[in-house]
Amino acid sequence: MTVIVVSGTGTEIGKTVTTAAVAAVARAAGRSVAVLKPAQTGVAPGEPGDAQEVVRLAGDGIATRELARYPEPLAPDVAARRSGRAQIHPQEVADAAAKLATEYDLVLVEGAGGLLVRLDDEGGTLADAARLLGAPVLVVVSAGLGSLNTTQLTAEALRARGVRQLGPVIGSWPAAPDLASRCNLADLPKDAGTPLLGAIPEGAGALDGADFRAAAASWLGPELGGTWEGLTFAEREAPAPRAH
């Protein structure tokens, strides 16, 4: 795959850290990598954004590009309107990713918020950009209560638009998972319609770059170039049967 679109079931669930893990594994395999952030919100000019955080974690040698930056932490269409700056449209995202794909082995397009967050006043979304690209979407999901519903809704939205889901990755697996998180390991693949492709441990984004890169492959399944085994992980973390 030349282009992977990284989206999620919501905001603050680990998209940037997941993007960094995929990038780190690809770089370790000798692939050239570019990260495209179509709309960076909530970051002032000159401050490091999500793309720069990917580089910090995954290492130097990763190319980055932002198409737009808006200072307020809002949906891109709203942030653009309030700032008086130009909005980003799905075709622009697709064109930029396609150009990068002629220069790099892997292009990771990291969205803002969830899959259907609006980019522009015409209702364009990251899903529309993925459809234009013909690129699969890696869906970052949460672990606990409520994640089954949002995972299924995201999967249905992708199918309705004819966009292939690469699979879900748990963006932050808790150090002390609760019952819902443990039970969800068996049910998330059913709701996504594809096997789990990885689980990033809670706090991974706070690691220094060297430690992050050393561990990244153990968090991602073979489909993403890693060594993580979903069945083994699910069996280990599965809750004990309820006593009668």
Describe it.
The chain has 244 residues and is α/β, with parallel strands linked by helices. The protein has nine helices and seven strands; from the N terminus they run βαβαβααβαβαβαβαα. Helix 2 links the parallel strand 2 (33-41) and strand 3.
Record keyword descriptors for this entry.
244 residues; alpha/beta; 7-stranded parallel sheet; 9 helices; 39% helix
Supply the number of helical segments: 9
The proportion of residues forming helix, as a percent range, comes to 25-40%
Structural class: alpha/beta
Number of strands: 7
Q: Can you tell me the residue ranges where pLDDT is under 50 for at least 5 consecutive residues?
A: none
- Tell me the series of helices and strands, N- to C-terminal: EHEHEHHEHEHEHEHH
CA-atom Rg in angstroms:
17 Å
Q: Judging from the principal axes of the Cα atoms, what is the shape?
A: globular
Proportion of beta-strand residues: 15-25%
Mean pLDDT: 96
**First-residue to last-residue Cα separation:** 49 Å
- Give a quick account of the main beta sheet: strands, pairing sense, barrel closure: 7 strands, parallel
Strand arrangement within the widest β-sheet reads 3-2-4-1-5-6-7
